[in-house]
Amino acid sequence: MRINAIAVAMVLGCGLSIFVMAVGMRASLERTRIQYYSSERMADLAVSLVRAPEQVAVELAAAPGISAMEARIVGYALLDLPGIVEPASARLVSLPRKGRPTVNDLVLSRGRWPDPGLVDEVLVNEAFADALGLSMGSSLEATLHGRRQSLKIVGIANSPEFVFVSAPGELFPQPDRFAVVWMGREALARAYDLEGAFNEAIFRLTAGADPGQAKRFVDAIVQRSGSTGAYGRDRMPSDRFLVEELRQLATMAAFLPAFFLIIAAFLVNVALARIIATERSNIGLLKAFGYSDTAVAWHYAKNALLLGAIGAALGSGAGVWLGQLMASVYRDYYHFPRLDFDAPVWVFAAAWTAAFGSVGVGALAAVLNAARIAPASALAPPKPVAFSGTNGLAGALGRRLDAKSRIILRRIVRFPRRSATTVIGVALAIGLLVVARTFPAVMDRLLDVHFSQTNRQDVTLSFIDAREEAVLHTIESLPGVIYAEPVRIDNVILHHGSHNVEEALIGSWPSARLSRLMGASGDIVAPPAAGVALARALAAKLGVNAGDTIEIEQTRGSRLQMTVRVAAIIDPMVGSSAYMDMDAQARLMREPGQISGANVRLDPAAYAAFNRELKRTPALVGASFLNLAESAMRRSYAEGVGYMNLIYLSFAAIMAGGVAFSAARVTLAEQERDLATLRVLGFTRLEVSYVLVGELAALALFAVPAGCIIGTLLANWLMQLFETDMYSFPYVFNPQGYAFAIAFTLVCVAVAALVVRSSVDRLDMVGVLKARD
Amino acid sequence: MPTFSLRKVGKRYGDGPAAVHALREVDLDVAEGELLVLLGPSGSGKSTLLNILGGLDRGTSGDISFRMTSLTAMPDRELTLYRRRHVGFIFQFYNLIPSLTARENVELVNEIAQDPMPAAEALDLVGLGDRLDHFPAQLSGGEQQRVAVARAIAKRPAVLLCDEPTGALDVNTGIRVLEALVEVSTRFRSTTLLVTHNADVARLGDRVVRFLDGGIRQIEVNARRAAPADLVW
Lengths: 773, 233
Known about the structure:
The complex is a heterodimer. Among the domains of chain A are: 9-42 and 238-368, no CATH class; 43-237, no CATH class; 456-630, no CATH class. Chain A is built from 21 helices and 20 strands. In chain A, the strands form three sheets. A six-stranded mixed β-barrel of chain A has the order 3-4-9-6-8-7. In chain A, strands 13-14-18-15-17-16 form a six-stranded mixed beta barrel. Chain A has a four-stranded antiparallel sheet with strand order 2-10-1-11. In chain A, helix 8 (293-333) packs antiparallel against helix 9. Chain B is an alpha/beta fold. Chain B has a single domain, classed as Rossmann fold. Chain B has helices at 46-53, 76-86, 102-110, 119-125, 141-153, 171-187; strands at residues 4-13, 20-30, 35-39, 61-66, 69-70, 87-90, 159-163, 191-196, 207-212, 215-221. Chain B has a six-stranded mixed sheet. A four-stranded antiparallel sheet of chain B has the order 2-1-4-5, covered by helices on one side. The radius of gyration of chain B is 17 Å and the shape is globular. The termini of chain B are far apart. The chains are: A alpha+beta, B alpha/beta. The interface between A and B is large, with 36 and 37 residues.
């Protein structure tokens, strides 16, 4: 029964290592986040403005519930980096004229703070500096609001505001393509014509302040400054990603370990029941010598608890190791000054409790049985196992089979709990692998839809301000441009009842060849001729259905507010925006014929020449290169998923192998005498092996459809759980994934079966003739 | 032609002074259709000899042949075929497969036999025609042993090897089992070797081979075989 013990410990270890890793990582991330936010005074509230004079800042600082406030200037710029063909972009954030920011302070990791008197000194975020190998003294050529300026890096910093950094509109972080640049207020004010004014305010609230009330105070003060409305951390991109990550870790911690713990409990039950059956006469002897029922029960319970302890120790150790691995992956995405995997003690306590709980539940029935055995009956030889109850369905079916197959079938029916354990364990292993193999298929589909079908442009250019559509001719005259299409994106606030959501309203061009809108089923969705189409997630946030009307509020200029009918609800895989016919949208915004950017198809031969020209174009605020975005996404996905796949693979192997080993060992122990008898009667090793392995093979075959169903349900469920505002993950059927999951699991079962099968070669034919069952 | 010829057959466990001789230089011929009783106390070597004759074990010296074919150097695979084709076993503890009914236990062996008799017929011969579909757990010890006899004789074996077939049974049940055994072995002219330590059972045989300390002490010929019903123990 050593193999059974190892199987229990390993299965427990797998489950608990996921638990320790996920819960420990979640706790580490949450603690780091809280500490970082607290020490650097992360903003609780923010408001974006078109232009607010300085005295508004004084009023804001004095508003009730506000403990600290920073009025600052923010913007976007194009960067021309030496040695890099494509222009990069940057988020510009002003630093206070004096001292450090009182809200969203920075942690300087290298260098010094910029001299407020020097307009060209800047700090850049650490991820960007590291990705490009920038150091103190390096310079950046930037186009700020159309004006080209040389910036000198004097320091490298991190901010709680930019723990997760990605360029607006990009799906994934590209640290070498997007920078956060902190610079003097005066320099930015000059670039953006905001002398004596600011365009963003960030706030810390006093302890116990009501955020809703604080928002209302702020909104009242800034209503004439072109405000898009104050918002909390739930709309700050970096924190939104972090919160989403924490939610996903909690999901992982909750569902995966539970399966392993249940299977471990079953394995303990089967193994211990077998040990007690084997040692029945010893139990009788012990009791005859005067050992109490409790002492006998404790003797067997100790075995189970020892297995629980070994499993918990394995799980704790492996969990810490996996957690450290995970932390190193997280450090590439989440830029804290320091992020370590440091699971609190309660995580381990919970893991050990779960381990003892699992083996305890598994052992309970068998241990109680040992305690209840009366000494006299334990010393008497056991009766043959009764199979009369198996003559129903199995009997009818069995009559069509040969005798060896009948033995297999009757045993499966006679021991349903054990058979179910094997089927469920193997099915879960298949299910786990189906899930693991569905993720890449979904990702491939998402990348294919986003980069090959929906967006077929090479570059998306974003203008500083809306331009006449005629600007397309200018773009088409740039070197290498084959074809250009208009882009119109307006940031709007959508209102419905008490729901207000800020989102992008994307103008869709019915005859677009480059950027098209695609639904979940993969077909191109034409923008509604009248009204607006909403992504399902957005519609849910607003609580609207097709046919309802909503208010759309412009977030700039004259802040128009229009009533629009919801024409359709659609299911895009990426983004959760609102979509309109482009011309209708421009008219709605009272800017007919104006566009906010362009999608461009390029001649690859002129790629360098196009980029050289782009870097000199003042009217641009961003240029998104789809090839770079796709490769960044694929790279980081491969890194993150690569090792997760390996974990899934090992865990599925342990689950399938452990369950199969355990089942085969118990079957062998129970049937050793019968198998030896068959050998004596003239059955060959192969024929006898069939009886031993056939049971496992039949159960494994039952497990195949069950595993596929479990895997499909789990994959569907997880895809829904992992859905965010940015992505929706439709389940993608991946036949190769299913084939792999089945083949890999069956190979694990086959290896376990063949190892146990070798015992058939060593069966003691002479001993069996003498020994009583 | 004797069914079995044994020449100086020995079985030794271990080497040197600690060696244990389970069998010492046994010479014996067993004629076809003969019922030979191997009698002796525990550890006298009778079961060891039976195991070697059944192809379950090998001697460490001497030669054994079955119908002039040597079993001594026969590879494992051929020994399996030998058991399958020619040998019927009956054990002290029945060794039935608990998950198969009486009929199926017999059919199990029939599946690998050449020209076996139908399972129902074999069970009828041992008086169990009405218990065909009972599982071992539903049968008494004597009934289980009779199923084992039916299983052994269904393939019409050349050799029947019985190791203490009544060892776990009471007198009346034991006699019923022996009656079945004697009847079928006579009917099919199977060469039957019956191991027992019960001296009275020895009266059943054509000859009685008395074992002591690993060797044959004496071979007696019964002038008349007793009927099982006449036995007392």
